[in-house]
Amino acid sequence: MLKWNGDFDLLGEFLTIFKYEYLHESRSIRIDPVQINSRELFENFIEFVNANADRIPKEINFFQRFLKSLPKNHFFFVVFGTIDSTERLMQYFDSLREIHDKNGIPVNKVAHSKDALALLKKYDLSFYGHQRRLVGYEGSHKMDRVCRFCGGQNGQFDATGGLVSFRNKAHVIPESLGNKKLVSIDECDNCNSKFGRGIEQSLLEYFSVFRALNEIKGKGGKKKLVGKDFVFHPEKGFEIKYPGNIDENTQSLNLKLKTNSSFIPQDVYRSLVKMIINVLDNPELASVQRTIDWVNGNFSAGLLPNIMIAQSHDFYVNDPMLVTYRRRINEHAFPHVVGEFRFTDISLCFVVPFSDNDRRTFIRNSDFKKFWNDFEECRSKTSWMETSFSSKSPRRTVINFKLEGLKFGENFFHMKSKDVNP
Question: Are 406 and 282 spatial neighbours (Cβ–Cβ below 8 Å)?
Fold first, then answer.
């Protein structure tokens, strides 16, 4: 998915690199939806990039990586808008397979299509965050809203004696992470405040490095990152105080910088799952009541399924995005609900635990590997790291990177953020 943030005149010029038909009557062009990754297309693209290097949005790099990853003379679709249903995705995959077959390209060699289609047959996919959307149960009057986290009804008193209201805007993904589009209509003000002051603080701290380095404008604007021996300013870059000895012959330094704040891994997991609960359809909530109890902090888990993490420019999104995978087959080797959260160039894929529709916890390594292999096969060019978020003990974020090309002033120097490799 390519999201264009440049000017529309430049967009029109970009579209002419594709195979198109000029419509004289309307003085417009019609892009052929079926394109081929030909040498001519790639040369046209490079010519466009070179001619507009100072104007093109950075998202254009995604398209270049896509062309390089797709085998030469293989076909792809140009689709305007968003493919937001599993059925439509499967239709496009089927059509691509037919096109390749007619052109003598063996179906089993079409990049990732066979594996992705197998995954789509197991799960319904839904995408959130890329467009403005209210989520929640819209079947009742505003005054009859019921919070999906505490069960409190608008205008009534909850179990703690607080008055239930829905006056404030409840962002599904924290606004501090740049979400301005995805809002819940059935998360009450009390729960919204509780999560914002509680578990979501760990989520914000976990992503604090990525938020700062990518200059994400969240609630209150861009945030600087502060540690014991450093400060990162989104506009100025890094200021690092190095306590060791440096002389003029020093070529590089390997540093470990710790942020001042800490996060609780299990609260990060809770926050991720809380976002998925926000977007589930109302009938699905009955099967995840124990999950909601866990999100609310009514109990802590000893062990949780591991979370798979990948960092790649192929994942880069301007707006934070949620993907839900809802199981569509009666096969309990796969979790009932799987979530994926994408923020800048990092993606976290995780099992939604404690569902009544699961017969396995997916904590045992063999169970987890069986399910994950199907997910990983359709993204075989991405390197995923398996990480535990079961701990309830605070941890600090550590930045590991190598400094080169330093400018010194005694034991203090400045470095631009582009030189950082976290």
Answer: no
